[in-house]
User: Which sequence fits this backbone?
């Protein structure tokens, strides 16, 4: 029997894969990337853009040696890193570190889910590494270095900011631009006549008596009913109203249908997880990855969802067949809908599906108490969204009642669900249409109804809301900025860098965040914007599809960007260091607050640096009674960078 080696990314998958593959396979994990761009210089040749790869840590060196050793002992080698461009690049790195003899044994396999069927099928469709995907990922890493390293160096020296980059600065720009919109916002005012009957029905004024035909409507307000532009005119109509409303007409029944939503992709799962489960973007990313890699349930390690980094809404034919059976068996044939437009076969370049359960028979109810609350909540969200997608539309019956008051027409609609369809699963979906039932025995044509209250109400438009993590991701996606692998970092990096804070779930930009974007806009307005970032993603897609050389765009872009960096270094205003209020004990220059790169902490240093290198900790030095055996001075407690103690 031949010896087989399977190389994957995450060690968390080993237990599940071993169960499916048995003893025929030795499985080893790369634990992410085995090599990275060199940290010396830019990490690539600044003329040819050829990457300079290094092994980043002793742990990675050990993993590489283990892979090499096991490869020599194996007759077949399968590289099963994640099914995206980054996973393809990791696969290439693994391939590249092997000797030529071992490279001949290598094949690439990918699976969108960790199930026995999917894993076995992946070996039936083994292939070579996709060089176009790899080059696209190389281009992404290099453009991010090219822009990020140089911008970060610039803003560190000029603005006291920690970093800037192609992706993170665009996300921050969205937040800052929204803050500017809020600050400049001038509200529009309008006036409504609000009416509530004794029966608690809320009526909407839709048409005025013909004698008020010349009254002005506020056309900019997208709100049902008549919105008065002038308060005096609203008051005049209000003055003409009696305290009784006559049922003038009842419409025929009309039917409306509401379709279920598309299955989840990364961005929409992030949005619902944030809005409905009160989770953060980071939490959703970590929990989804865990559900994908597998969780211990009743003594078995089981993967629960498909690959969670995807921008696809497609569902496999196999899953569609399983979903159909579950829906018909549990709810009946009338609940199964036909959604063939979303059911397509996956190919090599189109490996992803939507985020869905691996096994739809594992219902949320069956997993109660077997997952943590957050894991269960997220799985339930995915299971319900996926299954409901294959169900019939919800059907509503609507009847409109029109009331007359001195020639002014007011309306209210009765809304009754006549077939719940997919909503039998998603009853708690806040976006689903709700019933508004009216007892028509109480509302006959010609019947008169007294008011509970009626009044003229002044209203005004609100400023656009500040972004939260969900709405930021939604806006980034709508602008064509970012990809499934970047949404989480784009929603968090401004917080991590101190450029914004989250208050009541909303982003509030800090002074340093505003200053950073203001200066970047002045010098790099063409690069730090959604159009550039979207264009960059389009270039990367073309490279991945084999329609563009990986380095051609870089060679066109780099010279002009170099000139802009040079111009910014010479002309960007430098924010002065904050003064301590004391003089340096060595050279008598001003002491200032500085931030150390090594410990990422604030210290006191001499403004005469580099001529004077005096430094002073902000923390009180704690001396020990012990004496240094070398100098004879007292020993002091220092913080270790590596152990954080």
Assistant:
């Amino acid at each position: 029997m031949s010896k087989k080696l399977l190389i994957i990314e995450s060690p968390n998958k080993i237990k599940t894969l071993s169960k499916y593959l048995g003893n025929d396979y030795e499985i080893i994990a790369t634990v992410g990337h085995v090599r990275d761009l060199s940290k010396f210089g830019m990490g690539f040749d600044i003329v040819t853009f050829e990457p300079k790869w290094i092994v980043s840590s002793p742990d990675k060196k050990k993993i590489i040696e283990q892979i090499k050793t096991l490869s020599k002992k194996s007759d077949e080698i399968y590289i099963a890193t994640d099914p995206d461009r980054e996973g393809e690049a990791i696969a290439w790195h693994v391939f590249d570190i092997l000797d030529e003899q071992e490279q001949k044994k290598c094949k690439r396999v990918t699976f969108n889910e960790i199930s026995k069927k999917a894993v076995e099928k992946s070996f039936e469709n083994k292939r070579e590494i996709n060089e176009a995907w790899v080059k696209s990922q190389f281009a992404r890493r290099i453009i991010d270095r090219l822009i990020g390293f140089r911008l970060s160096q610039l803003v560190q020296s000029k603005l006291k900011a920690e970093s800037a980059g192609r992706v993170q600065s665009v996300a921050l720009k969205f937040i800052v631009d929204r803050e500017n919109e809020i600050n400049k916002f001038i509200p529009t005012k309008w006036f409504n006549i609000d009416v509530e009957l004794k029966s608690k029905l809320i009526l909407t004024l839709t048409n005025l008596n013909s004698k008020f035909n010349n009254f002005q409507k506020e056309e900019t307000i997208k709100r049902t009913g008549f919105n008065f532009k002038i308060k005096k005119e609203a008051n005049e109509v209000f003055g003409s109203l009696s305290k009784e409303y006559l049922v003038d007409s009842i419409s025929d029944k009309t039917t409306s249908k509401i379709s279920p939503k598309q299955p989840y992709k990364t961005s929409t799962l992030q949005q619902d997880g944030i809005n409905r489960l009160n989770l953060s973007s980071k939490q959703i990313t970590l929990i989804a990855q865990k559900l994908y890699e597998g969780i211990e349930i009743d003594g078995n390690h089981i993967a629960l969802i498909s690959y969670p980094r995807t921008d696809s809404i497609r569902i496999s034919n196999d899953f569609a067949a399983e979903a159909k059976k579950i829906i018909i068996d549990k709810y009946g044939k009338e609940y199964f809908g036909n959604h063939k437009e979303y059911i397509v076969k996956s190919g090599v370049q189109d490996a992803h599906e939507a985020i869905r359960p691996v096994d739809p028979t594992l219902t949320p109810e069956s997993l109660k108490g077997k997952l943590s609350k957050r894991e269960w909540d997220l799985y339930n969200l995915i299971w319900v969204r996926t299954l409901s997608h294959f169900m019939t539309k919800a059907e509503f019956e609507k009847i409109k009642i029109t009331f007359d008051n001195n020639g002014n027409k007011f309306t209210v609609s009765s809304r009754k669900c006549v077939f719940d369809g997919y909503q039998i699963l998603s009853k708690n979906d806040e976006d689903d249409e709700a019933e508004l039932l009216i007892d028509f025995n109480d509302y006959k044509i010609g019947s008169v109804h007294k008011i509970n209250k009626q009044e003229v109400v002044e209203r005004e438009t609100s400023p656009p809301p500040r972004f939260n993590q969900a709405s930021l991701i939604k806006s980034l996606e709508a602008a064509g900025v970012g990809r499934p692998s970047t949404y989480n970092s784009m929603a968090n990096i401004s917080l991590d860098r101190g450029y914004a804070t989250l208050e009541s779930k909303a982003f509030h930009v800090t002074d340093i965040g505003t200053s950073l974007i203001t200066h970047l806009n002045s010098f790099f307005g063409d690069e730090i914007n959604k159009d550039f970032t979207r264009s960059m993603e389009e270039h990367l897609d073309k490279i991945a599809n084999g329609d563009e050389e990986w380095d051609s765009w870089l060679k066109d872009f780099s010279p002009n960007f170099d000139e802009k960096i040079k111009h910014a270094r010479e002309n960007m205003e430098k924010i002065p260091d904050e003064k301590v209020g004391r003089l340096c004990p060595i050279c008598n220059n001003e002491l200032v607050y500085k931030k150390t790169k090594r410990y990422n902490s604030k210290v006191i240093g001499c403004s005469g640096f580099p001529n004077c290198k005096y430094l002073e900790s902000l923390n009180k030095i704690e001396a020990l009674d012990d004496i240094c055996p070398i100098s004879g001075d007292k020993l002091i407690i220092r913080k270790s960078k590596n152990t954080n103690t």
